[in-house]
Amino acid sequence: MTIHSSFLQLIKQLEELYDNREATNIADWVLEHVTKKSKTWRIINKDIELTVLEAGLLMSITEKLLLNTPIQYVLNEAWFAGMKFFVNKSVLIPRPETEELVDWILNDQKESEIDDFSFKILDIGTGSGCIPISLKKKLTNSQITSIDISVDAIEVAERNASTLNAEINFRQINFLEQGNWESLGKFNLIVSNPPYIRLSESTEMNSRVTNFEPSIALFVPNENPLLFYNKIVLFAKQFLDSKGKVYLEINELLGVETCLLFNNNGFSTELKKDMQWRNRMIKAQLLFQ
Questions:
Q1: pLDDT digits over 142-161, tens only?
Q2: Does residue 20 share a domain with residue 122?
Q3: Considering the domain boundaries, does residue 72 fall inside one?
Q4: In this predicted model, what pLDDT tens digit does every residue of 196-240 receive, in sequence order?
Q5: Which of 149, 187, 191, 224 has the most CB atoms around its CB within 10 Å?
Q6: pLDDT digit string, tens, across residues 20-35
């Protein structure tokens, strides 16, 4: 089977699960992974036959995709901020709105008077490490601590930091246990994409998310949807520098409630929409210290 005929066949198979545009994008990604060749090369050489090894790999990948497994978990790779990250089912798949959160921080930091060398960042719930690694690549002299409750997630994040040459202090810590806070120290900036989806919302979500991505990184109890934000508020009041800031990804349905939580605890807040025009992130800063 040629490269081109394999590509067309995979698109047809994937259209059972995806629209044509997404099926085409996934098929292109898969063929690049299988052949280790660029799209341009594959177009020019579209009539070359796949090798036996390539055909076997393609078949294995296709079988997993047709089980509705996300492409990122099938290939163990995801792109974020122009970098390729290793991912598996221990961590969430990095998403574009999280890139927007990182960009917001970086744009604000350009205008900051804080010296990079003394700039200390805490990343809560690091997952794949996409947030701290992306920040470290731009804020090269900053000191970043990243924590996660999952040992497996920390291993993935450390692997990505090593591959992408980013020096970060990773620690396996349950942030909800306040007894762990003192050991972390003080920070100029806190960033987090914590669990924020209510369990009741899971019925509206794509099965590729609910069946494959780690529930511990996604869901919070219906009766306490701001669980992590409450803890972050308490932590920030004790361990955030007086001029420090908090940047958080949020549940778009709870934007007002999340801002009020911070406002009622002495913070000023800014609610920001993502490119889809959804309330997806906030910035908070203490009014008084």
A1: 999 999 999 999 999 999 99
A2: no
A3: no
A4: 999 999 998 999 999 999 999 999 999 999 999 999 999 999 999
A5: 191
A6: 999 999 999 999 999 9
User: Letter for the amino acid at 8?
Assistant: L
In whole angstroms, what is the distance from residue 44 CA to residue 42 CA?
A: 5
| pTM of structure | 0.94
Domain range enclosing 54: 3-67
Which of 46, 67, 88 delimits the end of a domain? 67
Q: Which 3 state secondary structure label does DSSP give 120? A: strand
- Is the Cβ–Cβ distance between 80 and 57 less than 8 Å? no
Tell me how far the alpha carbon of residue 209 is from its chain's centroid: 13
Q: Is position 73 within any domain? A: no
Report which of 230, 227, 245 is spatially closest to residue 287, judged by C-alpha positions: 245
DSSP labels, 38-65: -HHHHHHTTTSBPPHHHHHHHHHHHHHH
One-letter amino acid for residue 199 of the chain: L
Could you give the CA distance from residue 250 to residue 220 in angstroms, rounded to a whole number? 12
119 and 213 both lie in a single domain: yes
* CATH number reported for the structural domain that contains residue 105 in this entry: 3.40.50.150
Query: How many structural domains does the chain have?
Result: 2
